[in-house]
């Protein structure tokens, strides 16, 4: 399915990296890394959401267990991090991993909702999906903790340090430890029955 030019996407990233910087790190083992990271380094990757809420859900909340009590997000997770808006400048082709598209690739919601303990297996699936569709530019799926929002993992040649189809809207970047950033984070974490820990 297409990811049209002009689409606005959001990302939480460390301030020392550009918002459209690619991650080339191979992730053959756990713990560490995210759902669809490259196992072998055959592609570089970047994760984005369709809204600030999606970026928070996938970056700060994705590893949180489901519980009746408010979940605590360590403050270290927002240390030095920035919420940035990006715009797609060249249409891309996505492998859809939601709704009936999951059945079409022989999977169900386990692929996008499973715990981090399964990440080696989900990365193996990502490798197989790209092998079967080599012209695809990435994956699109529903956020683990928010069915109403979508997340994207975009992949490029591992030699690229910046995604060529993403333009950074620098005026809309918000440091998460700023006054505005903290208010934004706390408000959105509340949607996911979570809050920032008081100290660490």
TrEMBL record:
Pfam families for the chain: RES (PF08808)
UniProt xrefs under InterPro entries: RES_dom (IPR014914)
Domain (RES) ranges: 24-165
Domain of life: Bacteria
Official protein name in the record: RES domain-containing protein
Naturally occurring in which organism (per UniProt): Rhodococcus opacus M213
